[in-house]
Amino acid sequence: MASTKVLYALTGGPVTDLYVALAVAAIALLASIVSIEVGVSIAIVEILGGVLVANVFHLHSVSWLDFLASFGSIVLTFLAGAEVDIDLMKENLGSSVLIGCVSALAPFAAALLFARFALDWNWRAAEICGIALSTTSLAVVYAVLVETGLNRQRLGKLIMAATFVTDLGTVALLSVLFIKPNAWIFAFVGASVLAIVALPRVAPWFFRRYGDRVVEPEMKLIFVLLLGLMVLGKLSLSQAVLPAFLLGLVASRLYQRHHKERQRLRVVAFALLTPAFFIRSGMNVSLGVLWANVGLLAALFAVKVAAKLAGVFPLARRFVGEGSTYFTLLMSTGLTFGTISALYGYQAGIIDKTQFSLLVATVVLSAVVPTLVAQRWFGPEQEILRHDAMSGLAGTSPAEDEGGSDV
User: Which CATH class, in words, describes the domain spanning 2-388?
Assistant: First the structure.
């Protein structure tokens, strides 16, 4: 607590929301610089920054940061849906569904059995463990793909489609096993369907009539819809992530014609909402608890990643080809739904604080390590070069590739 006392002495008062805001802004700025200089995803740096300020400076999240993080995850999910090529998704629907289902079920089963029989957790706690480690982070995947430009490529679009199916499976598992919706679920489903059906019909007129103005009414329209879904999702004891993705999906063709509007929404998300989401996620991790249980943390992380690799990689090799290792590693990430599932289990008394910290730390670790490995050693370009080298083509001249000579 010494660092907190230093802040108290310097400022003459307790650490307030303003200091938390300064810390978040400073981390976001430094993360941008480090990301550019080192060449890793900014999401990784922001998560690690959140871990740092929570454990070294003992700053903790406040209500406005919790809200921005929650809203940020929904906006990122909407943007991820808006990036999906619907025609490509239809062409690859079978492979996306198959990969996504295996990506959810393989780690769910592996983590559940490991927690129950190796760690001796009770069945309900083991189910929470399985659900928390079954996810793929749509927010992390989308952020990485946008930074690398792969969101415009077939590989990136396939990753997002499979990630969506994975998270849909996770939501289904959590809902079937634990969540008992109330009467608000009918309003939530009805509003979701209405928004998904109405947006592609109303938005073109709305964008023509009110778009391209400094007050950004088209962006505010999207925010109102997403916030409305969040409110109804909370009232119905459900989550707004699924309808947010579908809403983005039906708006994808609209944003193909309105590039500036999508770019402006992306700027707001990555400048304000994304840092709040990733930094807040890192602040959930307690290094003290983890140090006392580092062996369990390593085991849980290994179970999640091993199950993802074993389940997804063979299918990626079959349906994706080049870039399959990169594909599989990004599918091994987790964050949003993993944290949500662990938090649900903790608040419901299904898991204790140590189990909660272990699951959240495993989820955060899975957001950092596979992403870092994928970007540093298994990007699509590196895999192509490695494949060429194994085929004896590396180092040849263009003329030699075409059967010619250097003479």
Answer: mainly alpha
